[in-house]
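A quick word before the example. In earlier lectures we treated sequence and structure as two separate objects. From today on, think of them as two lines of the same record. Here is Glutaminase written that way.
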Amino acid sequence: MELFIIFLAFLLPLLQQAVLCSPLYTPVQPPSYPLAVKNPYLSDPTAWVPGNWVKTLPSASAQFWNGLNLTWSVIARVDDQAYSLFGVPAPGSGVEAAVVDKAEYTATHSTFTLTAGQATIVLDFFSQISPANLTRQIAPYSYLTVSATPIATATPNISVYTDIDNSWIGQINEGTLQLSWRWSLIDGSTAAFSVRPGGVDQYTEVQDTAQWGTAVYCGRNAANMPLSRAVGAVEDVRANYVANGTLAGSISKWVAHGVVAYSQDLGKVTGPTNVTFAVGYLRSPAIYYDGKAQATYFEATCSTPECGCVAALDDFAAADAESRQLDTQISSKAEDAGGANYSDIVTLSARQAFGTMDITIDNSTLDTNDVLVFVKEISSDGNVNTIDVMYPLSPILYVMAPEYIRMMLEPNLRYLAKNIWRYPFVMHDLGSAYPNATGHEDGHAEYMPIESNSDLLTLAYMYSTATGDKQWPAQYASLFRTYADDLVNHGLYTESQLSSDDFLGVTANQTGLAVKSAVALNAYGLMSGQSNYSDLGRQRAKTLYEDKLGTDSVQTHFTCVFGEEDSWGLQYNLFQDVLLNLQTFPKEAYEMQTNYYHSVHMEAGVPLTKSTQWSKTDWMLFSAATAMAPGVDNKTVRDMFIDDVHTFMSNGLNPVPFSDKFLVQGNSTSPAGTWVDFRNRPVVGGHFAVLALDGANQIKLDGN
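And the structure line, produced from the sequence above:
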């Protein structure tokens, strides 16, 4: 006993020290913090830092979403001592690591607070979400603000250093590096470094990084002090700053392991003092669609890196103020809809969901009245505008910007209207390799006709009801009728085909597809004013539920496959029926399925199907929302799903951008709660399903 007491006396101080040295995570420690996330390629280079690296942030490298370590560093000098703040894995002599005190994320900001000598320094990584302001939303820039505040009565001299390298342009192999760079000073105060690759083709990727864009790093004089800048080998440039607190302005030709760098002297700091940098990635053109180049919407006003730097930094204050409103609204509305854990989930999901989209206009006309949205199926297969990816993405758009639903369906519908795709069902995607939206003239695409038809019709009705727009669906009345008729002919007893969960393989008579088809027929009937389609959708729902074609014999749950009575899974396809108040199925069907989930809950959640040991977060939260159907109102099951996703998100096991697929039952190699296969995907927009029940277009920002 005496030895045990001695052991505790020795151990407790160590535990207390570990707790005191650990950063405070607000609201939780996420799998990965988004840093620069604005489009499918500014959510690639240097976009993220794993949550479990934050305690050693000064030496932690920023990461490409697939795990490549990339270069983005921040150093400060406080009085005569240099401190690494972020992204300096090999600091060299004379550099101390700052102490990380706090890490916080909101819908638009990731903020890290550090102590460096006699100063508190905050790094604020900000990617704006402004759906109603298309110029701001598509501006391919994110911001880094470094804020220094003296501790107590100290008045330290402080300067700030930051750099990026060729990894921002997808050029990883130093041995074959070809690039050009340029530095400009605009109006005596705005500095722009641009770095562009050479010897590459448009619309090409290497390891998912775009190869034809220009990386831009922008700065502006702060505290009435000029920026200094340098280009050169990373060791030399950083050593120059560490020794002198400034950069000598040396500009040399690019060398291997080179960087472009800024330093900003803040002078003697007596109160909070900030300097803001903008980092961007410009692709011109952005998308190749149906034989034409598509420019980003931003190019209508700014087509050069220099113009973009001025525009981005000029807009920073207004964009930042707007973002604070958005952060507050998303957090508070989500908490009202599903509690604090739910708010944590959707807050982390917002930048990731919007960061998978490009907003474009015709490159030849730059007509801002004809806007198209293209979505990259990041991480899984890189398709363009995959219909069964846009479907789970849609709840965030319904809540924040319903018009985007139309803008992302429009490219697919224009292509389908040309009859190049000669099948009576919707094409699975608009191109197999982003950013080439070239369609499938050869007729080969993933075979999921019922899934694709149902998703398109339901999304079209979702947009129409959210906005009141009846004219747009009328433009494609003939196409919609074709796809509805295909559901009439094939949507109940489905032939062997894939569903959205294509990794489960090809199966006939899938209950989930029949449910989705019935809901879509009802939606189409209401959208088109043809009640016979709605009547048929409801009749099929009766067949599936009341006549037990899609349930077990004693009606405890929907099956996965007709006749396989012991099969079961998440019946997420009921969600849109609830959201849009279609009443295809009776409340008893929602109630039956909702009540079943507790009985099949595994170690960390309800699996997707009986045959899997993993689940998907988007479908879990679709199911959580369905549990709140009128007359069901099962908060216990809703909260069960929310808590399971929250535990997965915050368990510290998954240092990747928010994955939507994870183990709910541990195995011999991985514990329950471990991510599987996917990361940084658009489908986290589906996490907004519970909030979507409170209505469309909920976010209202000043000036929008």
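Notice the following. The chain is about 35% helix and 20% strand. We will return to this example when we discuss secondary structure assignment.
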